[in-house]
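Quick one: sequence plus calcium ion SMILES, need structure tokens.
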Amino acid sequence: MIRTLLLLILVLFSVPASTAQVTLNQVDDFQDGTTQEWRIGGAGNATNGPINVPNAGPAGSGDNCLQYTSLGGNGVASKMVFYSQNQQWSGDYTSEGVDQISMDVNAQTNDLNLRIAMQGTNGTRICSTNPINITANGTWSNITFPITAGDFTVVSGGGDAASVLSSVFTVRILSSSSPTWDLPDVISATIQVDNVTASSSLSVTDFDGNDNEFTISPNPSKNKLNVLLPSNEEMNIEVFDVLGKRVYKGIISQISSSINVSNWRIGVYLVRVSNDTSTQVKRFVKQ
Ligand SMILES: [Ca+2]
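Reply:
Sure thing.
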């Protein structure tokens, strides 16, 4: 009886409630020189876990990124998977309006079938139903995982995908041929990742050629950010850094305007252009 109780207590406390909270538009840009708590299991993290690599990000010199090498064979670093647990990627995605996770990725050695897997505080585990296939060509690409309940397959546990998304404890980035939690590819492979971003499909639009959208160029840029409006209507413009701090605010009335960004920190920014009736947000990379 006592043994059963102890087991029950162990089970109850093995997945503690998450205290962290994911925030819409948060970005892991790895410019602080750390792995921002992305890791692999247990003691293996100290020797074979993800590392921060300077000057290797998509913006080149001065741009740090995260790099992970899985080793194949046996043991904790054998599989192409790394994770964030009870950190900035935990919490309630639904209430925060996060329905996408985008990131820059660079598969260095092997073609990968990337997926996001999540474990809820209820212990249920889900994984992207469809992978994003990355070709190992040593170049960066920006990918976006849809993060709504319909995008996931439940791989274990009694809850549904929605119950996980409202209370996420662990987020895994992994490669596998089918949805999984604990059977990612056992391969010797290296991947680089940067600008992992929590976004909303409702507020962030990328360059899809819509005539009613503003455009920014060049992107990335070192010195200036040119903003091109679809009409000469007066618009508010605000720019936010990865911490959500506003670094620029103004009003643009010309179809084409230019902002001096030469003194801005290297990294990712969100450019928001709005008036009374519409808001558009785009991602800008300062080199
Ligand atoms: Ca970076």
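Residues 41 and 76 are 6 Å apart (CA to CA). The pocket of calcium ion is lined by residues 29-31, 57, 63-65, 194 (CB under 6 Å).
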